[in-house]
Fold:
Amino acid sequence: MSYSRYVSKIDPENTGMFFKIKKVGDSFIHTCCEGELLYQLGLVPNDVAGKEIHDFFPLDLAKAKIDFYEKAWAGEFLQYETLFNDVCYLTTLRPIFLQGIVVELIGTAINISDKKSKEEELRHKQLLYHSVVTNMTEAIFILEKGGKITVLNENVEKLTGITTGTYNGTTAAQFGIEFFNEDGSKMSYKDWPGFVTIDTGKPCHNVIARIQRNEKTRWFRLNSNPLNISGDTAALVSFFEITIEKEQEIQLRESYAFQKTLLDNLESGIIATDHEGKITLINQKVHQMFALEEDIEFYIGKNAKQFYGLWQEKTNTTSMMPDSIPIEERTQITKEIDTTSGYTFETSYIPFNIEDRFSGNIFEFTDITDRKKMERALIRAKEEAERANKAKSEFLAKMSHELRTPLSSVLGFAQLLEMDRSLNIEQLDSVQEIITGGRHLLHLIDEVLDLSRIDSGKIKMELSIIEFSNILNDCIKSIQPLAISKNISVKKHLDGCRKVFVKADPTRLKQVILNLLCNAIKYNRMNGEVLVSVHLHADRLEVHIKDTGIGIPKDEYQNIFQPFYRINGTGEQGAGIGLPLVEQLMRLMDGNVGVSSVLGEGSDFWFELKIEAIAELDGKSGVEHTETQLTNRELKRVLYIEDTESNIYLMKRVFNLEPGYTLIVARNAQEGLELANTEKIDIILLDLNLPDMSGEETFTLLKKNKIVADVPIIALSADARPSEVKRLVQKGFTHYLTKPLDIAELLQLLNKLQPVY
Ligand code: ADP
Structure:
């Protein structure tokens, strides 16, 4: 350590301090002290001159200085630093020799406070850098030409296993480490970002690479920056792991690819938009359905509005275009649309929400053009079938009606003949055959008419609450003669203690029961049996009509309820109308009908109706019938207002045989009204279907006429509906007789009526 070396380092601007020391005895006395630094220390020359060190410095500091002074007095050349009053200064202490003996010490000092703080700063920075490098999440190393790696933090080894050393393609492979590009291709070691920087001198930013080591794959994002080391270009390489993000990205990409494949292969077209209506997705099907001209990608990001023109909504009650609906009111809407190219699509609009926040729109399109065509064809076919069926029903109705009029004559005259006492037994038998056949024919015609009325929806049910057993008993009573003719016993099993009330049309219910009872007798064997049983369930009544007849094959159960269907080979006559009528009537009365059967053993037909009420048998009917007893009088004068000649002829024949009556005939309403004025009339028989005036109008005019106002008027009509009968009786008709007339019933009635004088 030479004196000159230190002096040269003294800053010329740094005005220092100079002092001298002599040793007196054991004490070191400062003989003089001068310089700017002295004042910077907070002292003046007089504080120091002639004083020992502990006179102006604190003791501990003074003690350390004394050591230096001793060493210098011993001949040593010294330099030391002192910190006093926040000033750091460097002292150089030199012994002065005289004849080889130290006679004085000369000290010079300079302020080094600035230099000191810079050194401190540098040291601090180094510490900071070190701590940053060690604590950073990135791994960092220096790569030099030739593959020398200097690892700067432990993350490098932690993430890759690489330690400080020299690496190249071979050693890296031996080390078991392989690099791959993002696209999966192998990355040669020359392409490592560090080597690229060394070769080109340029940085590489955000290179994504996959590193495989010991069959473990990790993804990294790397950066490398050029670094100058002793004139050579090296690279400072940093990297961090992105395996989780990358795997998520791969998963996302895979799931997107999966969804896209799925969407593209859907039978429906899908368009999705973001919350602003910009298209985010279109599948292949939409492209095809709307015959779009551009590639799918062209439409991504465009506003979905441009599609609105490609279709037309069939109804515009609620437009499915989301723009016209406030976001909070958007709900799923499904509609049919017609496209400009002539297709029909079923379109659903689905608002797309994420966590209750509106995030976009989804439109789904299904091509229903073919289905629509088929539906239209089906509707046409159905309408055609309905038209044909209606025509058939109308034909049947017309035919039946036409048949009824001549049949009325046949039955009327046959009954007249039956009354002729001059007929012998054989002739009477023949007449009765005519009557039986006629009645059967009439029954058939009525059923055909009923069926066609049901078909055309013209049948009217007269529903009322009725007591069931009354109806059933009436029916059983009326089929007795038929049962007796085949020696079949009809047994019934009813709940004897209770009366059951059901809601039904009494005439129609009778028709149902009679049909089933007649079949049970007709398709039974001689000496067979019919069992009628009634079962009460919670809310319905179930009636079984069981026979011991030929039975029905299972595969015919459905067919026999089809109009005009008959099972071959039963050996019985029939038209196949009864059961379909039974089924339709039950349906109209909210009931059901069915059958089960064992071939060769018998059939069990059942029907059920809803129970309205149940009462104990003791209850007495509140309805009382009062009949006015009319006394007979001689020669009743009957005015018959009728336009059908055969009916007039029949009536004349009847009255010819009845000596107590005079028949006066009017062939239209007008004539009838006139005769009422001119003739003395006891009873009026009024046909309701007159050519010049309706029967009811005629009735009103007759009633207005004081002369005949009190004369009993009997209505004659083919309309047998109870409601019609009731209505006309309420209107004032004394009685109502249905055509074809039952002559015995007519004569009985006339006999009861007393003329009014
Ligand atoms: P029809 O008796 O006039 O033929 P229906 O409509 O009443 O017409 O009956 C249809 C067919 O069902 C009958 O032709 C007969 O073959 C069968 N059928 C109906 N009732 C019975 C029964 N009680 N036993 C056996 N067969 C029956």
In short: The CA atoms of residues 416 and 654 lie 6 Å apart. The chain is about 40% helix and 30% strand.
